[in-house]
Amino acid sequence: MLFPGHQSALHHLHWRSFDSWGLAYRELSADELNGAALGWELVWPRSVRVHYLLGADAPYGTPTVRVTAPTEARTRWRHIEKDGTACLLAPGQSWMPLLHPAAIDGVLRAISRIIELNLRRSGDPPDAVAARHRWVDSGVHAWSLLNPERGDSNAVATLLHGRWIIASTRHDLEAWMSHRGMRSEEVVDSVVVHVQDFAEVPRDARSLDGHARRAVEGGGVAVYVVPTEAGPLLVAVALGPSGVLMRVRVDRADRRWLHERGGGGLPAEISEAHVAIVGCGSLGSGVAEILARAGVGRLTLVDPDSLSWDNVARHALGGSAVGRSKASELASRLRAHLPTTPRVVGLPHRWQEVAADRSRALAANLIVGTMAAWPDDLALAEWARARDIPLVLGWLEPSATAGHAISLRGRCLACHFTPRGRFRRAATQWPDESPIRLADGCHEHFLPYGYADVVPIQSSIARLSLEVLTAESAEATHRALLPSLLAVEALGARASRDAADLQGQLPTTVVWAEHRRGWPVDPGCWHCGGIG
Question: Between the CA of residue 415 and those of 60, 122, 384, 412, 514, what are the distances in Å?
């Protein structure tokens, strides 16, 4: 044992707990331990027997409990794996160290709950999820691009490096493969069968019905969709090299399932949206990645520049993309990482060229601008406003001391900027010496900040973009992400009057705060004349 000093105490603690539960028990022999450090056989009412095992990491490790009798526990009981191991913990829970009777009591209560559940429901059909674990008898896996809730009956599949890839149509399959830089050798017709119970899934070739038999004998797969409490469960069958029916575990890789863990599923307002991102630098590349992972259906990325080594550490792309188009490389990366995204296009051009030559590429549900280049931003705002296209603009203040995201909703951008592009709502004021750093004489400059500094601003811009798409944000709005006053001063700046007024509403311990307010029309605006 790793902790031999606890061995005697573990014996006594467990004996006392077993006695208090009225359980018959005996210590397991070395052969029965099968590599465990300590173990007992426990006999529960109705002749249920379990092996209670402690590993070398006891008392800090998790105990293993295997049901050895009745024998049907391994084939029919819920929460019991193929080898008899009981799944004692609910998802997200963990054991206390086994240093107190209460911890052991908790393990015994969990065993008791599983035994009672299965004895009470002994006549019920086997749980589909547990049955799937026991049913799969080969190492062959499949990735499914199917939407199992649609009720499709036709499918296609290809076998790639020993793994089946299954999709509803050949187009879906080939698009997924090309996004990952792959090509399928052979695509075969397959079939999807919806059943009501796992017992309807065939165990051997003789159990196949007509459609499934034709698909399998033609070299394809038959996918079975079983309803469960956790949603549709998929398994498949295919013919092995010797003509024996192989049972294939199917893992969902479809678009809906990929984005299910985002919290709210994948609303149509996002999954079917087209977002054009103008500017794919250190700020925009992160925004593009967040929106892609949020499930935005179509992305058009616009940026004329190539990636250079000096920007690698704070850009979504790595060193392998140096010297290549930011927009094109970022599109390739997103397609490879999220191959179910319908379309990601990178255009290595200035947005003005795209607007003039292929304006449909910018005819999106939303344009997100992260160029932070005045008057390019103003020109983009006017172009989008004239075409009634929603626009979100985002930028950083020097040294990433603060960040801003605005949704114009047809309003004038210049209402809160001077003609030279100074933002009247800036959070920081800097001394005469600018924080801008020169990289190559007068020809190139940059703002010094790290990747960790830019991530909160990327998130703020992306969240506002998603709210615009889902109509949660229906008015022109300004989001300011502000640091603490102490952080601003530590960088050699001071808070602007506007920011100081906002920060005065907060306790001094706040490190970052997002302030939300409107984007009102300036009656004296130099650009729109107060029209908005």
Answer: 62, 72, 16, 6, 21
